[in-house]
Amino acid sequence: MKQIIIHVDMDAFYASVEVRDDPSLAGKPLIIGALPTERGVVATCSYEARKYGVHSAMNIKEAYRRCPHGLYMHPNFEKYRSVSEQLRKIWYDYAVKMEPIALDEAYLDVTYSAGDFERAGEMAREIKARTRSELGLTCSVGVAYCKTAAKTASEEKKPDGYFEIRTPEDFVELMIDRDVKSLYTVGAKTAEKLNRLGIYTVRDIRERKDEILERFGKHGQLITELAFGIDDRKVVEYKPEDAKSLSREVTFQEDTDNYRMLDDVLVLLALSVEDRARRHNVHGKGVTLKLTYADMQSITRSRLITAEDNAATIYSETSRLLEQVEKRPIRLIGTGLYNLSPDEGRQMTINDYLETGDGSLSPEDKPGVIERKLQELQARYGLDFAGHMDDILHGRVLYRTIEYMRKHY
């Protein structure tokens, strides 16, 4: 099967996060990086600042010369990393393999999860919709047959854009009369060398392929292949076992203080976490419960587990943790596993077979816990899980299901 790759690129990521968190910044030229009185460069800037020629990596003094009336602020990388983690959780709902490039950018291999470009397009639009509704941010998304074309597509309609490039022929048609710098790997220095040879466009590269191969060697081969729309690079998988934790969380459209409903939500989150852990062949040694209150205060509660890290254990332990927290209106709820390691057929312990003093469940009890809870959810909300559970555990369907539960408890 031919590759289908989605490239997601957040729009002015740092600036957009700051505007989201402080709406008074909206519509103003916001420059994030060093302050005008300091040494340094621009990390990123809003689109309003870009109208004055400000861009990433520009010396801050030059940025101030071009936009003296701009708003300048230091970056908050802890905040951006936190938002990036939330983004990756959305992306991983769709990707078989994911290759993060930065906090705000990634390639997603959806060859097998999508199957065709029509479904890949639906996935891309779902990513855009969830990014807006769950995180209050916008992104530009490209869908294509290779990594270079996917990145090119995501840049084609920025900001908040969507574009497809399905074949090498489509890529060539789009790029052929563009500057050589529009090709991946052709930076300023390489472009200068090509220009000295009278090579200015992608068309020129195609017409003088042999000369470029002779003069530039391996780099020349890459340049000429790209000019013909050829890029066989694979998405380099991000491995969850390399991370310290794996989780699933949802942000409600409206705050809720219905803790019985929140307990019901933990059932679906636990099933989703279990499914994701099994898909990536990892297991965890502890479970976490995360809550964000209406006033944006976040708390995390965790507990080591001795039993198998299946959905029943995840639900039972997080449900117990939920009982112990302060009861105030909730904006976000999440659950997860931590201390991850590859799943290599872990030996069962005595606690897997016996009910322990701390309330752990024996293996024969565990399937019944989830089965009973799902029956309760069906009766309480009128949900039909038969034949739909795979969809419910992934992506926007999970989010919509939980929102439905919140509204109809």
Globally, the shape reads globular
Total count of strands: 14
Query: Strand order across the biggest sheet?
Result: 5-6-1-7-8
- Summing up helix and strand content along with how strands pair, one would put the structural category as alpha+beta
Under the CATH scheme, the architecture of the largest domain is 2-Layer Sandwich
What's the CATH C level of the largest domain? Alpha Beta
- Supply Rg: 25 Å
Proportion of residues in β-strands:
15-25%
Number of domains: 3
- Number of DSSP helices? 17
In angstroms, what separates the terminal alpha carbons?
A: 44 Å
Q: Give the full name of the CATH homologous superfamily of the largest domain.
A: DNA polymerase, Y-family, little finger domain
Q: pLDDT average, as an integer? A: 88
The CATH topology of the largest domain is given as Dna Ligase, domain 1
Unreliable stretches, pLDDT < 50, 5 or more residues? 344-366
Q: Roughly how much helix do the residues carry, as a percent range? A: 40-55%
Largest sheet: 5 strands, mixed
Gist?
The protein has 409 residues and is of the alpha+beta class. It has helices spanning 13-21, 47-50, 60-66, 77-91, 111-114, 117-135, 147-156, 168-175, 188-196, 202-207, 209-227, 259-279, 311-324, 350-353, 366-381, 389-392, 395-408, and strands at residues 5-10, 30-33, 42-45, 71-73, 97-102, 105-109, 139-144, 162-165, 245-256, 282-283, 286-293, 298-304, 330-338, 341-342.
